[in-house]
Specification:
Structural class: alpha+beta
Number of domains: 2
Distance between the termini: 38 Å
Oligomer: single chain
Number of strands: 3
Strand content: 15-25%
Shape: flat
Number of helices: 3
Largest sheet: 3 strands, antiparallel
């Protein structure tokens, strides 16, 4: 999914189909993010590849430094490693 309505417009220009519902969802998320951002902070959202979990970062506008990350990407990476390890153990026992 696109990060913003500008990204959605770029995807449409590249020939990627975005449904009306997805477009409305993107616009609603954009409005919510703008309402939550303060004078010193901004939000960044992305999808963790392996778990498909949405990660929200709160960043300092001036420095770009991460103030908070929910859930922490390192935690999701650890979950992936645990899942891989559990899969290896099951494969070895069978």
């Amino acid at each position: 999914m696109a990060k913003s309505s500008k990204d959605a417009r770029n995807l449409e220009l590249q020939g990627v189909h975005i449904s009306v519902g997805e477009g409305q969802l993107i616009k609603a998320i954009d409005r919510a993010i703008k309402a939550l951002e303060g004078p010193d902070t901004m939000f960044e959202m992305k999808v963790h590849k392996e778990t498909n979990a949405i990660i929200v970062k709160v960043l300092n506008k001036e420095t770009g430094e991460t103030i908070r990350e929910i859930p922490p990407e390192k935690t999701l990476d650890l979950v992936v490693k645990m899942m891989e390890f559990a899969g290896i153990l099951i494969d070895e026992k069978v």
